[in-house]
Structures are given as structure tokens and as C-alpha cells.
Amino acid sequence: MTCTGKTFWNLKSLNSEFASNNRLVKTKREAAISRLSLTKITGMNTMKTRAFLIASSVTIIAIAGVFYLTSQESISPANQAGTKSPTSPVIAEKTMVKEAIPAAPTKAVADQAQQPTTETAPVFSHKSIETFKKEYRQIFLLGNNVDRENKRNEIYEQLSRDPEIVDLIKNTVGNYESSQQYFGDEQAQARVASIKMLNYLAKQGNYEPLEYALSQTAVRLKSSEWVKGVEHDYSDLVTSYIGAKMGNDGDNYIAANFDAIARQAGASTRLYDPFRIGLELSLSRELSKENYLTISEKLKQLREQHN
């Protein structure tokens, strides 16, 4: 049973009317006391009036109770949240089943789940970064020194004894963002010095740092817009890799192992020019006609690839 606001105020008016009737009865009773002839009749009327008032009071209390319960239900937390309880066990059961079934993933979510996660760039200690800064500045100061090659090799040898610095150097070349993060305005000098040290390590038989930097630089050039200077890094890395690998075989090694070199360098049509430059810088002036024809044909095939 619902008790509206209008009904509530009607009940309030009715209660006032009962109070007025009560005062009227009291007045009549006082008048009846002064009239002895009407005492019996007045007593009977008083009893009837009391019975009527009691019955009316019970009715008002009952109606007020219904109104209170109805108003409490209307402001309950469930109603405030806008939820409705099921009206039958069948509806309740269907609601539970519907909530138990997980929603199918959207295509965007599924595609995102299939995408490979990006590897986080390694973090290097402040000590390693500052040590390398100090040494590559010293390397450039040796530009006019007649014994600069031996002195630079001594610096490379000293740095190579620290595995973290070796890791820092290969990432400085292979990750352009890392070079900017760690060396700021000096990132170009840091990359040049790193390539020279990678060349030194490869000639000592440690190819992994150079191969890593070469492959990572190729991936960047093939997958994003070129940043000025990175293509030159790639050419220098190709030259360093070939120079370390060919040993005493010279041009014969390049002609016989062109495909393996191109694979390791990640060479493609997009990287044709910087790869060709790096390869040509590795060739000797005494290049034989046979090797020249072999290498030229391989370069032509590379340029015509669709990758």
C-alpha cells in the first residue's frame, strides 16, 4: 500500500478534525453535568465518543506506519543506486547466469593482446656513463697525436674489461634514444667513439657487440623514419663488420660471403645505399674483375628486392 504526500496531509487534516470534535464533546459534557436530567444520556454519548476516537487513532497509526515503511523503501540503497530486484525466482536465476558469462573481448583488445611487448631499454649506472664520457673525450683529444692509434687502443682495451661499459657502448649505437638519454648534446661523439671501440672488439674476436649494434640499427632504419646520422652509423658498422671478418682474404671473402654479410647486416632495398657505401669502403683498390662482377651482380639483386 502506497501513501502519497496528498494522502498524508489529508490524514493530518482529519486528525485536526478529531481534535476539534474532542473539544466539542468536552464542552457538551460540561453542559450535561449542569443538567442532571441529561446525565445518563451524556455518559452514553461520552463512551461512544471515546470508542470512536480510539478506533480513529488506531486507523491513523496504521496508515502512518504504512507511509513510513513505503518512504523507507523508496530511499533504500538499492533504490538510490537505481537497481531493481527480480520479481520472480526465474528472473533472478536468469540475471545470475547473465552476470556469470564474461563478455567476449573486442577486436581492439584481442589485437592488443597479440602485439609483442616492447623490450625495455637497459639501465646503466652513473659511474659507467661518466667513465665512458671521460674516455671518449680523451679519444678525440688524440686527433693530432702521432701515436693516437696505439693510445686509443689502450683506452678501448681498458674499457673492454668492464662488461657494463661494453653493454653501454653497443646500446649507444644500437639504440638512438639511449644515446640521447645518456649523452645529450654529445650523443654524436658518443656514437662515433662507440663504433670505433666495437670495431676494436671485433678485431680481437669479440663479434657479438658489433653484430648486435649492426642488426639493431638496421631494424630502426627499416621500421621508422631516418634520424640524421643513423644511416652513416649503419655504413660504418657494415665496414667494421666486413673488415673484422675478412681477415687476410680481402675482397675474396666479400665476393664469396656476400649473402651472409647482407643477412647479418639486415640489408634490404630500403637500406641499399648505406649498405653499398659500407661495402665499397671495405673493398681494396686492387679489386679483381671477377670479384667486381660478382659483387656488382649481388648488389643489383639486392636493389631489386621487394622488402
Give a topology summary.
Elements: H1 5-33, H2 39-74, H3 77-80, H4 89-100, H5 107-114, H6 126-141, H7 148-160, H8 163-174, H9 176-183, H10 187-203, H11 208-223, H12 230-246, H13 251-256, H14 258-264, H15 272-280, H16 289-303
Helix pairs in contact: 1-2, 6-8, 6-10, 8-9, 8-10, 8-11, 9-10, 10-12, 11-12, 12-15
Features of this protein?
mainly alpha, 16 helices, 307 residues, 0% strand, disordered N terminus, single chain
Describe the structure.
With 307 residues, this protein is an all-alpha fold. Helix content is 73%, strand content 0%. The protein is built from 16 helices and no strands. Helix 8 crosses helix 9 (176-183), helix 8 (163-174) packs parallel to helix 11 (208-223) and helix 9 (176-183) packs across helix 10.
Number of helices: 16
Mean pLDDT: 74
| N/C terminus separation | 79 Å
Output the structural class: mainly alpha
Uncertain parts: 1-45, 73-119
Largest sheet properties: none
Q: What characteristic shape results from the CA principal axes?
A: globular
Helix content: over 70%
User: Strand portion, in percent?
Assistant: under 5%
